[in-house]
Design a protein that fits this description.
Blueprint (H helix, E strand, L loop, with lengths): L1 E6 L2 H11 L6 E6 L9 E2 L7 H10 L4 E4 L2 H5 L2 H8 L2 E2 L4 H8 L1 H11 L6 E4 L2 H10 L4 E5 L8 E4 L2 H13 L10 E5 L4 E10 L2 E4 L4 E2 L2 E3 L3 E4 L4 E4 L9 H18 L5 E11 L2 E8 L7 H7 E2 L2 H9 L9 E2 L3 E9 L11 E3 L1 H6 L5 E5 L2 E4 L2 E4 L3 E9 L2 H12 L3 E2 L2 E2 L6 H9 L4
Parallel strand pairs: 1-2, 1-4, 2-3, 4-5
Antiparallel strand pairs: 6-9, 7-8, 7-9, 10-11, 10-16, 12-15, 13-14, 15-20, 16-17, 18-19, 20-25, 20-27, 21-24, 21-26, 22-25, 23-24
Helix pairs in contact: 1-10, 5-6, 6-9, 7-8
The chain binds adenosine monophosphate (AMP) and glycine.
Glycine binds next to loops.
């Protein structure tokens, strides 16, 4: 079986690494890929945002199964294009991918599905949005409607900040067409958790809960990034509550999309705020999270390719999911300066040493890297995702940071508190 993975991040390295272990022995191609995916298959220099070029590549390479990593190709209709071409592709069609592609669309679906989420209003005229913000108490959250690489959300502590965000999105057009429509919503208080489920037809198979760390610096301070680390499971969302989230959030959304004539297939990722009033949805993604994918795939047991195929082929009901009881934790090593301007070209070493600490239990996933004359060099903001298993969260954290200490790269930076919030929740509920 010939598989094309689309994307170039740590998530795509993890997908390639896990698929490669399948007894089906797939042949992997990755577009455009990175230094890590080159170890698992063949990288091909086609951009993830160029759907016609991807479709030509799929035909040229006789691809049997397409797996888009990021949201862009899904929102831009890669699944619809593959369907037309008669090629199997994992994920939702463009209409259902609108859950991530348009925050206003996601809000209307949630409203119709009666899914708990923050009170909100949608605006296409700056004057109307300004009037609304002036009548509301802050903090308020201002969101660009469209895709903005994780940067289109501002939690504004006062009216001035909210108005500045509106101006930047609607007047200065800092996010292009993505900011022409904005969603303004009430601020929710609580701890965040990521809940991902394989969905197809009436079948929902939840993955274990995870927690991302979006802020750049320790203690959840600094600007938001794509994610500086993640772990699974998240004590704030224990397994006993998965069924509740499926009933409260996942199934109602699936039903609503089906009613609208576009059933969802693929990974539905609910970004949740665990509030005192119960879980509420902050956002939907229609794909694996990055970096949540890395610890999740470390824990997943069995043939991952069979699971992905069953979902795409409409036979997810045949599958049962098996996961290690270990915790897994991923620390992202970034280039100094990220998420702003950052250095590139630094040589990376120590990866084999890090993995040798505990073979099979430590894995360094590569993100912004490339191979240059046999050397691995940094080429992106998030460079590596050092991921480790452990019998509990504390051990997984310790193992991951021991591995981080073996990696050498000039001008690098990482958070030193990945998992610490989860450990505080564990202590609070009396778990060791
Ligand atoms: P989103 O892309 O919508 O998940 O927003 C990115 C981040 O902004 C989330 O992970 C939260 O940390 C924060 N955020 C978004 N919406 C809200 C909200 N209604 N209340 C509090 N924080 C929020
Ligand atoms: N880690 C958050 C995301 O993938 O959107």
């Amino acid at each position: 079986m010939r598989i094309l993975i689309i994307g170039s991040g740590g998530r795509e390295h993890a997908l390639a690494w896990k698929l490669k272990q399948s007894p089906k022995k797939p042949e992997l191609f990755i577009a455009p890929g990175n230094g890590g995916t080159a170890l698992e298959g063949e990288n091909i220099a086609v951009s993830e945002s160029d759907i016609p070029a991807l479709m030509r590549l799929i035909a040229e390479k006789n691809i049997d199964f397409v797996i888009p990593g990021p949201e862009g190709p899904l929102v831009n209709g890669i699944v619809d294009a593959c369907e037309k071409a008669g090629v199997l592709c994992f994920g939702p069609r463009a209409y259902a991918a609108g859950l991530e592609g348009s925050k206003a669309f996601a809000k209307t679906v949630m409203e119709e599905a009666k899914v708990p989420t923050a009170a909100f209003a949608v605006f296409t005229r700056y004057e109307d949005a300004e009037h609304y913000v002036r009548t509301k108490n802050c903090p308020l959250v201002v969101k660009a409607d469209g895709l903005a690489a994780g940067k289109g959300v501002v939690v504004a502590k006062d009216t001035q900040e909210a108005l500045a965000a509106l101006r930047s999105m609607m007047i200065d057009k800092d996010f292009g067409p993505a900011g022409e429509t904005v969603v303004v919503e009430d601020t929710l208080i609580g701890e965040e958790a990521s809940f991902l489920a394989f969905c197809q037809g009436d079948t929902v198979i939840p993955l274990p809960s995870a927690q991302d760390h979006k802020a750049a610096f320790d203690g959840d301070t600094g600007p938001n990034t794509g994610g500086m680390g993640a772990y699974s499971p998240a004590p704030v969302l224990p397994e006993e509550r998965y069924a509740e989230i499926v009933d409260l959030v996942i199934r109602p959304v699936l039903k609503t999309l089906e009613k609208r004539g576009c059933p969802f297939s693929g990974i539905l990722y609910a970004g949740l705020m665990m509030t005192q009033q119960g879980p509420m949805v902050l956002e939907f993604n229609v794909r694996f999270g990055d970096p949540e994918c890395q610890p999740l795939l470390m824990r997943l047991e069995g043939d991952f390719l069979e699971l992905m195929l069953a979902c795409a082929q409409g036979r997810l009901h045949e599958i049962s999911l098996s996961c290690s009881t270990d915790s897994a934790l991923c620390v992202v090593i970034a280039a100094e300066g990220y998420p702003g301007a950052y250095a590139k070209g630094m040589e990376i070493s120590g990866l084999a040493e890090a993995e040798a600490l505990s073979p099979g239990k430590v894995k360094v996933f590569q993100a912004g890297t490339q191979m240059e004359n046999g050397r691995i060099v940094a080429s992106g903001g998030r460079v590596l995702g050092v991921t480790a298993l452990g019998g509990n969260l504390a051990t997984a954290q310790q193992n991951a940071y021991e591995a981080v200490a073996r990696v050498r790269m000039a001008n690098s930076r990482f958070r030193r508190d990945i998992g610490s919030k989860g450990l505080r929740s564990c202590w609070a509920c009396g778990e060791k």
